[in-house]
């Protein structure tokens, strides 16, 4: 209940899915902080659920000036930042993931900007406001380890995010700032409604569920528990690595 008492966290994309589940878990362990996103309506709804202690900051993580403002505003409000969860990402609005023959240079760049470049600069823009000893948690994906249809660019971006946890931990060693990646498997979030029409969502979820050895999709709260661990002193010896939370999907085959 109080593993993170007094800690201040900033969660990008905290107004939906995994990011909101992480914000709830951090809050339940005593943290306060800020959630970010572009959609003001879902930011306000999420803040309503998180209650006092959390604020919403609107911003686009692919824009440098927005990232600078997000961390400046969070620092002005709370006076320090102990944890950053670099979660915003996934589907680019209006551009479906596709196999190579159907990818344009623009769609390639926009996927890389949202899922890779924004992760790097979220960390960079947070640095002036971070405590020494802070914990940064990058959100990767099991797609970095196992190819899925249309996900080559997304998987490559997330592979590089996993690599950032190593390189950035080295860059930040003197400040004792730890950077680790949490890679979710298939998690039940609004993202499926961005990939297929609403009437097909349950069918697509079932396809993923059938691949998961533990027999269920992951929940945002599952990701929240792992982030609480990575944000807390319980993980103080864990630096520059990845936790894969996927119900066994990557490493265990259900083949009979
Ligand atoms: N669900 C899964 O199965 C799964 C699996 C592996 C990894 N992941 C990763 O987990 C993270 C969260 O995914 P999710 O499933 O929770 O998806 P989601 O419900 O679609 O949430 C995506 C979040 O990112 C924010 N976002 C997207 N583009 C943004 C931008 N340009 N600027 C600022 N915020 C932006 C969205 O807020 P706004 O729309 O308001 O901007 C939203 O809060 C992503 O990094 C995703 O790649 C998800």
Amount of helix: 40-55%
The biggest beta sheet is recorded as: 7 strands, parallel
Could you say which small molecules are bound to this protein?
NADP nicotinamide-adenine-dinucleotide phosphate
CATH class: Alpha Beta
CATH architecture annotation name: 3-Layer(aba) Sandwich
* Structural class label: alpha/beta
Q: N-to-C SSE series? A: EHEHEHEHEHEHHHE
Overall outline: globular
Contiguous runs where pLDDT drops below 50 for at least 5 residues:
none
Task: List the SSEs and their pairings.
Elements: E1 8-12, H1 17-28, E2 32-37, H2 40-50, E3 54-58, H3 64-78, E4 81-86, H4 105-126, E5 130-139, H5 152-171, E6 178-184, H6 192-195, H7 201-209, H8 220-231, E7 242-245
Parallel strand pairs: 1-2, 1-4, 2-3, 4-5, 5-6, 6-7
Helix pairs in contact: 1-8, 3-4, 4-5
The structure holds NADP nicotinamide-adenine-dinucleotide phosphate.
Short description:
The chain is an alpha/beta fold. Helices cover 41% and strands 17% of the residues. The radius of gyration is 17 Å and the shape is globular.
Key structural traits:
single chain; 256 residues; alpha/beta; 7-stranded parallel sheet; 8 helices; 7 strands; globular; binds NADP nicotinamide-adenine-dinucleotide phosphate
Describe the structure.
With 256 residues, this protein is an alpha/beta fold. The protein is 41% helix and 17% strand. The protein has helices at 17-28, 40-50, 64-78, 105-126, 152-171, 192-195, 201-209, 220-231; strands at 8-12, 32-37, 54-58, 81-86, 130-139, 178-184, 242-245. It has a seven-stranded parallel β-sheet with strand order 3-2-1-4-5-6-7, with helices on both faces. Helix 5 links the parallel strand 5 and strand 6. Helix 3 (64-78) packs parallel to helix 4. The protein starts with 7 loop residues before the first strand and ends in an 11-residue tail after the last strand. The model has no long low-confidence stretch (mean pLDDT 97).
């Amino acid at each position: 209940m109080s593993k993170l008492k007094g800690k201040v966290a900033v969660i990008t994309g905290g107004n939906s899915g995994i990011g909101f589940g992480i914000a709830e878990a951090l809050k339940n362990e005593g943290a306060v902080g800020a959630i970010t996103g572009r959609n003001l309506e879902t930011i306000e709804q999420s803040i309503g659920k998180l209650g006092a202690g959390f604020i919403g900051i609107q911003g686009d993580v692919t824009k440098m000036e927005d990232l600078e403002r997000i961390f400046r505003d969070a620092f002005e409000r709370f006076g320090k930042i102990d944890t950053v969860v670099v979660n915003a990402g996934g589907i680019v609005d209006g551009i479906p993931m596709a196999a190579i023959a159907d990818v344009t240079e623009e769609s390639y760049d926009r996927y890389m900007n949202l899922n890779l470049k924004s992760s790097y600069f979220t960390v960079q823009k947070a640095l002036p406001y971070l405590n020494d000893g802070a914990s940064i948690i990058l959100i990767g994906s099991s797609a970095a380890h196992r190819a899925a249809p249309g996900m080559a660019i997304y998987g490559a971006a997330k592979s590089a995010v996993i690599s950032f946890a190593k390189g950035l931990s080295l860059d930040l060693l003197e400040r004792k700032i730890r950077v680790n990646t949490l890679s979710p498997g298939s998690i039940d979030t609004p993202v499926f409604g961005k990939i297929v029409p609403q009437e097909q969502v349950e069918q697509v979820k079932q396809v993923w569920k059938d691949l998961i050895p533990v027999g269920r999709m992951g929940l945002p709260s599952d990701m929240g528990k792992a982030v609480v661990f990575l944000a807390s002193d319980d993980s103080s010896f864990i630096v520059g690595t990845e936790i894969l939370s996927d119900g066994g999907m990557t490493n265990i085959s259900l083949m009979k």
